[in-house]
């Protein structure tokens, strides 16, 4: 799926398929990106980076990891079997290796999660979550329209604004519940990959 296809899906759910459209493509893209960011917080796209350590220092800068949401594991030293994962802490863009030997300047592997992408070329959203993103985008679009339509003359009457708000809130409730279900599978857990 690409961004154009997602916009079409959201328009279909909003019953906004006849021109002139009620929502512009830019408006829908903004709402889609908001829902996509929330999904990414729950189910980030897995990534791996090889970063150098500094001899005699346990600190590694993460500033080169763009769109980073979280760090799952740090492997140091690399290319050993079984892999040696280290305990670590993060403050801002600085990761501190807490366990293991003092780094000697060799590389380490950082396993982390990043924001999903959705653009004209395609998407990193797993297909099973596309409808969830569309539901969130619809909710945000309807709430936005309800806020805009206050004190505007509407062919549908005074109830239209209220109905948009109610419908949008229901879609957002469904979206948030879907994210919570993902959150249970992705909840924080204390675990050890290997015995020290």
Question: Quick gist of this model?
Answer:
The protein is an alpha+beta fold and 196 residues long.
What do these coordinates show?
The protein is α+β, with helices and mostly antiparallel strands. It has two domains: 3-42 and 117-185, no CATH class; 45-114. The chain is 39% helix and 21% strand. The strands form three sheets. A four-stranded antiparallel beta sheet has the order 1-7-3-4, with no helix packed on it. A three-stranded antiparallel beta sheet has the order 2-6-5, with no helix packed on it. A hairpin with a 2-residue loop joins β8 (118-119) and β9. α3 runs antiparallel to α4. The protein is elongated and about 65 Å long.
Low-confidence stretches: 155-159
Distance between the termini: 43 Å
Mean of all residue-level pLDDT scores: 87
Beta percentage is: 15-25%
Structural class based on helices, strands and sheet pairing: alpha+beta
What is the count of structural domains? 2
Please count the helical segments.
4
Order of strands in the sheet with most strands: 1-7-3-4
Radius of gyration: 22 Å
Compressed to H and E, one letter per element, the order equals HHEEEEEEEEEHH
Question: Main sheet, how many strands, which sense, barrel?
Answer: 4 strands, antiparallel
Label the overall shape: elongated
Number of strand elements: 9
Helix content: 25-40%
Describe the SSE topology.
Blueprint: H1 3-14, H2 25-42, E1 45-52, E2 59-61, E3 68-75, E4 85-86, E5 88-91, E6 94-97, E7 107-114, E8 118-119, E9 122-123, H3 130-149, H4 159-185
Antiparallel strand pairs: 1-7, 2-6, 3-4, 3-7, 5-6, 8-9
Helix pairs in contact: 1-2, 1-3, 2-3, 3-4
